[in-house]
């Protein structure tokens, strides 16, 4: 396995007179054996970052080292992609349909002109490790979803890469198998202590696999931290939204209180703040109740239910303060709540964030 050290990495594409700074000065070290996740919106440089590490793009500036070996330098590839010891997985699903499991797994070894006897040994070893021995002669159409995933992973790992690079690997999978695919990748990555970089726009991919994650915005890391820290303490509003559903509401902070409307308010986490801010609170940190108290929650005021709809195991309920219809909050409820009904709004105040006019988190 290898550590990856990236210093001031830049990739600028030029389209006529327009300059696209796809990767704009990234410095990061990914230690040997770590699973590192790159989360970011579409078009912000995730794939370019991965391709630079793979050696498929020439850096405009900056350097990349695998352990102490220089692999890319400004304007040149020092070590060609095929000599970097990497495995790249774009879509975990994509097996060759006209090849058996054995041939699918053997494919990268044959490409690398590995001797036949060694190929046989390696394919059988990894098939054993991944529970595929009994299906080596099967074609992909004869496999269960789980067996297909394991075959794809076996094919990626059979060359014993020192670095695994994954780009949106689960995006083509059904929701039902996506979770088990994530769990399998995580298990194998941890067991083998395989240095892994996974890029995705889906926080679930990153949160289920990565030990450390970087959020890339405009070609730069806006935050590098543990996935839970990125979720709980986002550096800014964009990171907060990328991490998962969050209510963002314009508020006024005055006299130690955050006002969502003139009647709905919670204590401010930072008594020094005064003025206009944007409040961020995740739906799971907000609750509706007939009572005014619940463990860990603070009563904020009266709200009216606008709509309650069932989405993925919860009743997404939208409410507004009774005195201001223009403010809306999304709440996760265990059951249907009748639109028009009035409820008490409770907020887990230690989880709220305030963002300033630049979107920076001022509650950190
Ligand atoms: P997505 O999630 O949509 O794949 P991404 O975060 O992976 O997006 P990149 O594919 O790295 O983003 O692209 C970053 C920026 O660089 C985009 O503006 C893209 O249009 C531009 N770009 C990428 N490759 C090229 C290229 N070969 N030539 C010109 N511009 C490019």
Automatic annotation (TrEMBL):
SUPFAM superfamilies: MOP-like, P-loop containing nucleoside triphosphate hydrolases
GO molecular function, one term: ATP hydrolysis activity
Keywords: ATP-binding, Cell membrane, Membrane, Nucleotide-binding, Transport
Keyword Manganese on entry: no
Keyword Cell membrane: yes
InterPro entries to which the protein is assigned, alphabetical: AAA+_ATPase, ABC-Glucose_import_ATPase, ABC_transporter-like_ATP-bd, ABC_transpr_FbpC, ABC_transpr_MalK/UgpC-like, GlcV_C, Mo/tungstate-bd_C_term_dom, NA-bd_OB-fold
Gene3D superfamilies reported in the protein's UniProt record: 2.40.50.100, Nucleic acid-binding proteins, P-loop containing nucleotide triphosphate hydrolases
Domain ABC transporter: 4-243
Pfam family membership, one: GlcV_C_terminal
An annotated GO cellular component: ATP-binding cassette (ABC) transporter complex, substrate-binding subunit-containing
Protein name: Arabinose ABC transporter, ATP-binding protein
